[in-house]
Amino acid sequence: MRWVKIAFSSLLILTSSQISAEQYGFSTGNTLHEWCNDSSEEMEQVISRSLCQGFIMGTFQMIWASSHAKGTNPGECIPSTVSDQQITDIVKSYLIKNPEERHTLGLLIVFQSLEKAFPGCLKL
């Protein structure tokens, strides 16, 4: 659990500084938007869409675990019937509706979109 705290601390420091997240190899909302909306040839599109959903679901699971560690049970307010595709669609919709946020870390985009959809359920 300690590595989760270190990772989040590092991400928060990066978001508060003037240094671009992309300089350190972190995915931003712009990268995520590209992956989720790739219209290239079929195989490239499959790879991009897989990166999109994989990033979103991996981040969602990390945020879920962090929420549990902070004493919140997301299962109490996020229905158990929510699918991976629905979580992905929530984030994709947020990216489309909030282009001014796309320069921020992908992790924060996922968190902000899910926080909007399920207020108070998740904690970083």
Mean pLDDT: 83
Number of strands: 0
Give the count of structural domains.
1
- What is CATH's topology name? 10k-s Protein, Hypothetical Protein A, Chain A
Estimated radius of gyration: 15 Å
CATH architecture: Orthogonal Bundle
Distance between the termini: 13 Å
Query: In what range is the share of β-strand residues?
Result: under 5%
Largest sheet: none
Estimate the global geometry from the Cα principal axes: globular
Low-confidence segments, given as residue ranges, are: 10-19
Order of helices and strands: HHHHH
* Count of individual helical segments: 5
Helix content: 55-70%
What is the CATH top level name? Mainly Alpha
**Class by alpha and beta content:** mainly alpha
Explain the overall architecture:
The protein contains five helices and no strands. The protein is mainly alpha-helical and 124 residues long.
Which labels suit this protein?
single chain, 124 residues, mainly alpha, 10k-s Protein, Hypothetical Protein A, Chain A, globular
Secondary-structure topology with pairs:
Blueprint lengths: L1 H15 L12 H8 L5 H28 L14 H14 L8 H12 L7
Helix pairs in contact: 2-3, 2-5, 3-4, 3-5, 4-5
Provide a concise account of the structure shown.
This protein is mostly helical and 124 residues long. It has helices at 2-16, 29-36, 42-69, 84-97, 106-117.
